Amino acid sequence: MVATAPGSASELRVSIVLPTYNERGNIEPLLEQLLALQQAFRLEILVVDDDSADGTAELVRRLAHDQPAIRLIRRVGRAGLASAIKEGLLDASGDLALVMDSDGQHEPSSVLRALQALLEGDQDLVIGSRFHPQAQIRGLSGRRETGSSWANASARFSLPRAYAGLTDPMSGFFALRLDAVLPLVRAVDVNGFKFLYELLAVSKGRLRATEIPLTFQPRSYGSSKLDLAIFWDFLISILHSLCLRLLPRRAISFALVGASGVVVQLLVTQLLLGLSGRPLAGNEELALVGALAAASSNYLINNALTFRFARLRGLALLQGLLKFLMVSCLPLAANVGVAQVLVRFSHADSLSAQLAGILVVFVWNYAASSRFVWNTP
Ligand code: GDD
Ligand code: MN
To answer: Which of 248, 156, 239, 246 is nearest to 205 (CA)?
Structure first.
């Protein structure tokens, strides 16, 4: 693939980080093509595998026996794509590093172009963009393509101004100068799927970044690991940036779920009132059913999204529901109490009193259910 070394580049150390999760069918041809880069650089390839069930790690381990350039980092307890990339970069010993998908969607021939762009330009970061005017997308469904452009637009909106011109701040393909980027890598929040987005956000515009066009191929084997939960994480990342990264991500997620609960409560109560043909006054038990429905739906969604790393299943799921209901019972009284106290003693108007009540409930519910329902600090 690489014919000659560009100039004096052969002394340069390059680390390629390949995150893998069930990529047994794809990793070998990719490694073969990447190893050809040894003609141009002092190469190191770090495969960061999250305990794939399909034998990816065993295969890479075997390939590493004959190829000292290949290193396997194996992690138990899947921690996600962004976290794998962070770990690979922290372990990289090169001058330059390059991160790419290992499913064949990023073509290896772009690697040399990205490294050259990094060496020639005065840049810290070169991003392979699927949405560059000269890029070709062959591997995204129409729906996913629309989704990605929408996501890119919101990502750009929430990133530092310096990156407003980027077309693909969520790409999984990028090259960087390790000395410039390593200090920031430490600070990257790995709860998201999108390492690059987080890196750009924490850099506050200090990294000089540019893009090259990418050809995005269909996946060779297997299927994408992107799911609803990852989409949710992305939404939280955007809100997290918009809140100037001051609030914890989990609290933002918890608040969004809480807002969905308000809708559930109103709908269920209305529905019950409609069905029974009775007015709300004198039929408070219907409102109570609405509140219980909302709390249960909040619990299930938080279990699937906000606290999915500590997800409860089976009997524990039921026990968790009871605990959650108990936790959210308490502030019902407090909510009314705080509002009353404020109205009485500080002459606050009823709207701000209610908002203060909601804030107290939120903080209590979040803190108490993190601790008692999902056992997290
Ligand atoms: N170690 C590890 N752990 N690797 C993972 C994990 C994980 O939990 N999840 C996914 N990967 C690896 C996959 O094996 C693959 O090499 C790469 O990360 C990308 O995963 P895909 O599941 O193929 O992602 P995609 O093709 O749907 O998403 C693409 O577009 C995103 C932006 O929309 C990728 O290019 C992403 O990198 C990109 O952010
Ligand atoms: Mn992919």
So the answer is: 156
- Tell me the pairing of strands 96-99 and 174-177: antiparallel
- State how far the Cα of 99 lies from the Cα of 19, in Å rounded to an integer: 8
Of residues 261, 342, 345, the one with CA closest to residue 300: 261
> 236: burial class by Cβ within 10 Å (0-12, 13-18, 19+)?
buried
Q: Model pTM?
A: 0.80
Q: From the CA of 224, how far away is ligand 2's center (Å)?
A: 5
> What is the SS3 assignment for 72?
strand
- Which of 23, 27, 56, 105 for mutating ligand 1's site (highest number of atoms within 8 Å of CB)? 105
Going from the Cα of 81 to the center of ligand 1, the distance in angstroms, rounded, reads 6
How many angstroms separate the alpha carbon of residue 290 from the centre of ligand 2? 42
Q: Does domain 9-242 have CATH number 3.90.550.10?
A: yes
Name the β-bridge partners of 234. Answer: none
pLDDT in tens, 217-270: 888 888 887 778 888 988 998 999 899 888 999 999 999 999 999 999 889 988
Ligand 1 pocket, CB under 6 A: 19-21, 23, 48-50, 78, 80-81, 84, 101-103, 105, 148, 170, 172, 193-194, 224-226
Q: How many angstroms separate the alpha carbon of residue 72 from the centre of ligand 2? A: 20
Q: What is the pLDDT of residues 265-315, one digit of tens each?
A: 889 988 988 888 887 777 778 888 888 999 999 999 999 999 988 899 999
The structural domains of the chain, with segments of one domain joined by +, span: 9-242, 249-372
Which ligand ends up closest to the CA of 22? 1
User: Distance between CA 297 and CA 291 in Å, rounded?
Assistant: 10
Q: What is the pLDDT of residues 139-179, one digit of tens each?
A: 777 777 887 878 888 888 889 999 999 999 999 999 999 99
